[in-house]
Amino acid sequence: MECDTDNDHRGDTFTGTILTSAILLQSRKAAAVVADDLKIDVYMAGGTFFKGQVFAVDFHYNIAIIKINSDVPLPTSTVRFIDNSVALDPGNRAGIARCQDSPISSNRFSLYPGTKVLALGRYFADSYDMMAAHGEFSYGHCDFDCEELLIASCQIKKNGMGGPLINSLGEVIGVNFYDASYTPFLPINIVYRCYRDLKKQW
What PANTHER family is this protein classified in (predicted)? Predict the structure, then answer.
């Protein structure tokens, strides 16, 4: 998501920020606790490998922030907030008001039922190839215990959990979670707000 320059060390180093699902870091012994024997391997496109460190976790929103260090600049994604004024259900006039975030409201992506989206992920086995599942945004109820989650019809496997949901322009508009029938996703508006708040705490 971000790549910052760290000039505190001898020579320039770069710190990359990766957002993913907190469930991937959860201990098998206790819910909402990060595993104490955690090892994070981050594979970039092209096979470049980094050791990752947990920076912050929010189990309510199921978001984890992973940091990696590099001696070269790292690629970053293009993020596009969802327009929170769009009416999703004409019968109920409910908008994405629950996706309220920062006061910046320009240049947002209008998301309507039927909008084409793509869920991305990585396979767990060598060579960690990309996984992509196409689908559409749809209005509906998500059974997960988070009212801000929206739904796409993409059919992903569990290795797509924590990956980005992108629009037809390649812009990240959400973070994917897993369900066998559809893809719940947290709008990037909420993810950004969570990321901003977690940075303040740490």
Answer: OS09G0436400 PROTEIN
How many residues are present in the chain? Answer: 202
Q: Of 164, 182, 167, 78, whose CA–CA distance to 117 is shortest?
A: 167
- Give the amino acid at 5: T
Q: Which residues contact 9 (CB under 8 A, 6 or more apart)?
A: none
- Alpha carbon distance 83, 187 (integer Å): 10
Nearest residue to 134 via CA among 113, 155, 114, 161: 155
pTM here is 0.82
In a domain, residue 76? The reply is: no
Alpha helices in the chain (DSSP H): 188-201
Specify whether 60 is located in the same domain as 113: no
89-121 pLDDT, tens digit per residue, is 444 434 444 444 443 434 789 888 999 999 998
Q: By residue range, what is the domain housing residue 107?
A: 87-198
